[in-house]
């Protein structure tokens, strides 16, 4: 008891010291170093125009100004990217960085059991650290990670990246997804049912929905992920309304997984979620509700099914905002997780979207979904200095996004393969 009291006094003393108004020595008030990134081209994704002979002036991790033509402004560091094209850093709004299935190890159930039973939380976080680094090096400077991360291991990875312990994109995380009973497992034997709670927060009634939202926020969630339908089960309108109400009251937004027909998507849309994930068979009726309520569609298309492509065209025609998410979690030989995620863009061009709209859905629209009140996913004064550069023109060939040669996050260079120009930062 006495030792406890001593600790309490020491803590109180330390807090008291911290609160003293100590004068700062003059030399601690320094201006942030200025970095200038020069390139032959910059694609203004918002306006859809190319700017030539561009210098982006960066300080304190933010874009200060963009100078077009004329002499390159002076700075503490000049990074010359030669003939490359600058773009905002890519944003993937549907990732599972702490989750990896290997088809060589069996089907989805085999893989999920192995992941839950055979991997400690630390293993999941370290798997996530590898995938986070690979995503960043592929040009993804921000991701929204939507569950399948065990119990709060995504929070640990997000915070480790924010602290600079490991390299990775800025992360928005959801902790465990809320789901009907059984999560996304089908046909588990009774003995295995406690495993579900390691991956999902199971909901049975509106009050349990509210409690799960409160728990997720307490655990560190930036977003709430809800599996609206799984197998034959579907959360009810009153459950979804309770979840959305509870989350929004805390200023936290809601992403809803909805597949297999239209009912789950309609329940989610009417409840006022902020994004609908997948929505492979979403109807025009649901798209109309989404447009009215400002709900973003996050297609996670990996195939080439004609009806999937058709619903992308219907969503574009309806004016519904589209933010692209990879939903990548399978091991692919010869590719990193970032390489797998970067392959998604040509599918949207194949579905009928213009290259410019795909670029907006990869940067600007997801930026506005994640941080509505601050510029993200755009190169503009006041925005985070998240930049990538590619060789070639992405308006002609969206495939250039699979070969990103320069990555900067928060004003720090992550990768630069564009050596050769005067003042290149690294080989
Ligand atoms: Zn997913």
Protein architecture, described:
The chain is of the alpha/beta class. It folds into 2 domains: 34-88 and 386-416, Roll (Urease, subunit C, domain 1); 90-370, TIM Barrel (Alpha-Beta Barrel), CATH 3.20.20.140. 33% of the residues lie in helices and 22% in strands. Strands 1, 2, 3, 4, 5, 17, 18 and 19 form an 8-stranded mixed β-sheet that branches. Strands 11-14-15-16 form a 4-stranded parallel β-sheet. Strands 6-7-8 form a 3-stranded parallel β-sheet. The longest helix is centred in the N-terminal third of the chain and has 18 residues, at 2-19. Residues 1-23 and 421-427 have low confidence and may be disordered. Residues 94, 96, 146, 327 line the site of zinc ion.
Care to give the gist of this entry?
With 427 residues, the protein is an alpha/beta fold. It has helices spanning 2-19, 108-118, 121-137, 153-163, 206-219, 237-249, 263-271, 284-293, 306-318, 337-342, 345-350, 355-362, 364-370; strands spanning 34-44, 49-59, 62-68, 77-80, 85-88, 90-95, 140-145, 170-173, 177-179, 200-202, 223-227, 229-230, 233-234, 253-258, 275-278, 296-298, 387-390, 404-409, 412-416. It has 2 domains: 34-88 and 386-416, Urease, subunit C, domain 1, CATH 2.30.40.10; 90-370, Metal-dependent hydrolases (TIM Barrel, Alpha-Beta Barrel), CATH 3.20.20.
